[in-house]
Amino acid sequence: MIVVHSIPDGSTASAIEEDARVLAAVHAVGVILEGLGYSVYARIVPLRVVADLCGGTVRLAWRKLRPYVEEERRRSGSQKTFEWFQWLATQLERYSPGKTDLQVGAHEAYLDWKP
């Protein structure tokens, strides 16, 4: 995920494909988030859990990878490429603002938590 997060915003598919390490990270992260997205859709994992655990990471990864995914879809003629990853990012934007953000981490937002 660190490699994906380091991709400059707006990077083209060709820029991502130029570096085998970056492309491998994109595929690994995409496949993981694809499965996580479907797991939320199938109600195996609650959206709230994903939002709390990695919501910002999912949103950021989608922002970085969207141009690549859209190009892959165009090339293949199929909208199936990372469809559940995109769905998950969209649902997080729609329904899960969360208590944490770039200024407030879980260690602060949930300081009063009790078991």
- Give the helix proportion (percent range): 55-70%
User: Which band does the percent of strand residues land in?
Assistant: under 5%
Q: What shape does the CA trace take? A: globular
> Number of DSSP strands?
0
Largest sheet: none
> What is the mean pLDDT?
94
Structural class: mainly alpha
Give me the number of helical elements. Answer: 6
Low-confidence stretches: none
Q: What's the order of the H and E elements?
A: HHHHHH
Report the span from N to C terminus. Answer: 30 Å
Radius of gyration: 15 Å
How does this model look, in words?
By secondary structure, this protein is an all-alpha fold. It contains six helices and no strands. The model has no long low-confidence stretch (mean pLDDT 94).
List the keywords:
about 120 residues, 6 helices
Topology:
Blueprint: H1 2-5, H2 13-17, H3 20-41, H4 47-76, H5 83-95, H6 106-109
Q: What is the compact description of this entry?
A:
With 115 residues, the chain is an all-alpha fold. The protein is built from six helices and no strands. 68% of the residues lie in helices and 0% in strands.
